[in-house]
Amino acid sequence: MSKKLTVVVAGATGKQGGAVVKNLLARGHEVRAVTRDTASAKAGELSKAGVALVRASFEDTAALTKALEGATSLFAMTTPFEVDTQTETRQGISATDAAKAAGVHLVFNSAGSANRETGVPHFDSKYAIEEHIAKIGVRATVLAPVYFMENLYFGKEQLAKGVYASPLPPTRSLAQVAVADIGAVAVRLLEDPDRFAGKRFDLGGDELTGNEAIAVLSRVTGRPFTYLQVPLDVIRQRMGEDGAKMYEWFDRVGYTFDRAALRREFPDVAFHDFESWAKAQDWKTLLQTA
Length: 290
Known about the structure:
Layout: E1 6-10, H1 15-26, E2 30-35, H2 41-48, E3 52-55, H3 61-67, E4 73-77, H4 85-102, E5 105-109, H5 121-136, E6 140-145, E7 147-148, H6 156-159, E8 163-166, E9 173-177, H7 179-191, H8 193-196, E10 200-203, E11 206-209, H9 210-221, E12 226-229, H10 232-252, H11 259-265, H12 274-279, H13 283-286
Parallel strand pairs: 1-2, 1-4, 2-3, 4-5, 5-6, 6-10, 7-9, 8-12
Antiparallel strand pairs: 9-11
Helix pairs in contact: 1-7, 3-4, 4-5
């Protein structure tokens, strides 16, 4: 392992940031978590785990720069779903500017294929941050995960009824990644900035169709599942135009990642395929009916 780091994590109370924190602590690094609410339950859990809490707005460059005093690195992730994509871009630019001012290595958590002119609003908002990173010349690495395997949880009520629901045709493949692997790779990037600064990694662990996912789930759980293709109008009602455009892009183009290259680059990361991820889930709880 490299020298002990002091990493400021913006987004530590979320799934991806939380996975980064878990991996950093496991590898003996010091962690500071930036949060707007240091009194929240999730912030409390971080504090109990030995994480120092820093209250700051993600759009406050001065506060973020202060939080980075004495630190070696910044892991920053943004989300459009709390406010909107414009706010997300402002937050990412603020974090980038703070990393530049503090002279630390930035690992920015973007989205898979965001650099490919997808037309998906919350991909484009992240790519605008990537462009700002390049423009100001901050020492940075971009991590770009594909679709999360954990997104399956959003349909757990239907899964409990034996239904696997997706807006995609059952024969359309979709690249996916386990959140734990995002955390593991992020820490490898943070530990070796000399090697990884200036690089971008589209991160995935598996690629499979809906029919293949059903087959895996049936093997793992011992229960049969049927496939339900959800109309895009339903997605548009629930997730807005952004969500509809994302699934349209998945069906029309889809993510691209190089599995073999990732394994060569990060040989000590145990990348999950969908089946190994599924075997680690608590299906007894997940498949309980309400």
